[in-house]
Amino acid sequence: MQKGTYIRNGPGMWNIGDYNFRHLFDGYATLVGLHFENGRLTAGHRQIESQAYQAARKNQKICYREFSEVPKAENFLAYVGELASLFSGASLTDNANTGVVKLGDGRVVCLTETQKGSIVIDPDTLETIGKFEYSDSLGGLIHSAHPIVTDNEFLTLIPDLLKPGYLVVKMEPGSNERNVIGRVDCRGGSSPGWVHSFPVTQHYVIVPEMPLRYSAQNLLRAEPTPLYKFQWHPESKAFMHVMCKTSGKIVASVEVPLFVTFHFINAYEEEDEDGRVTAVIADCCEHNSNPDILDKLKLQNLRSFNGKDVLPDARVGRFRIPLDGSPYGTLEAALDPNEHGRGIDMAKNWHEEGVVPSEPFFVPRPGATEEDDG
Ligand SMILES: [Fe+2]
């Protein structure tokens, strides 16, 4: 008998009382669980009981710094109680609305860009069990929203905002302790590029250094800026770094054309006739190196659809990172946009009370052996 459960989260609630949020990414996390068994489907949904959500509901006000929303100092101070906290990670949200992962040990964790927003849930009832506490002392406030998780490894990136760079870390199943594989120092800019996601191959972790960089200043600013927690620094250039998963050694660090991406799609190693790896290929949804996409995901814009696409074009961007020591990598469209579309085209306006659309997600067919069998 084949059975299984599919769980997703995402922003699902965009108001607190009469106050309406402005950006898609601010929504308080809603979990959706689909349980397939015996040819039948049982479905349910539930809010994730993050501190931020609980405090907002209790006080009918935003109490933590969300993606674009910031609490009035009095709300936050009333809730947490010290001025210093306003300028530390304590005021950041734990609204775990960007992903759900099942660790190798079976625990199910919801995630967001802040480390404190790692929340363990019960996959059967969708109940919030509690915060996932990292037991190491690696620190940092943020991490990649999309770690790479398999049955035997959990890999993620921790940006270092003080000494611009990234820690590449690994966590074993059954453990809450992240161990450092290695460190990448940024080659441009005064802060690391945003790493919402990153690609890995069989032997390598690829660390993208995007010119859309974190801004510690904007992270703590009282009013949203056009690029929210980020700043666009084309002059700081763009780079891709390739780190060996086992040794932590950087085997390539190349300059690439400017790019903007949230999501990497796939990555693999290119080999020569003798089986030696000559390059790493990584595909992503690339927004034509235009950071405007962030602001275009405002709810007002998304809800303004009148038959015309309100989102800027995107493409499947393919990086080729040579491992032969050359200083440059390439970035090209992997698919013809005229034939395969421009990423997130809006062709339809669909609306149903109480219902939120989400992106498609690949689920392998039970027993599948081919990578695209699903
Ligand atoms: Fe994402």
Structural commentary:
The chain has 374 residues and is mainly beta. The protein has a four-stranded antiparallel beta sheet with strand order 6-7-8-9, with no helix packed on it. It has a four-stranded antiparallel beta sheet with strand order 10-11-12-13, with no helix packed on it. The structure holds fe (ii) ion. Keywords: Dioxygenase, Iron, Metal-binding, Oxidoreductase.
Task: Give the helix proportion (percent range).
Answer: under 10%
Alpha-beta classification: mainly beta
Q: How many structural domains can be distinguished in the coordinates?
A: 2
SSE string = EEEEEHHHEEEEEEEEEEHEEEEEHHEEH
Order of strands across the main sheet:
6-7-8-9
Apparent shape: globular
Mean pLDDT: 90
**Bound small molecules, which ones?**
fe (ii) ion
Biggest beta sheet summary: 4 strands, antiparallel
- Computed Rg: 21 Å
Compute the number of strand runs. Answer: 22
Protein name: Carotenoid cleavage dioxygenase 8 chloroplastic-like
Organism: Trifolium medium
GO molecular function: carotenoid dioxygenase activity; metal ion binding
Pfam families: RPE65 (PF03055)
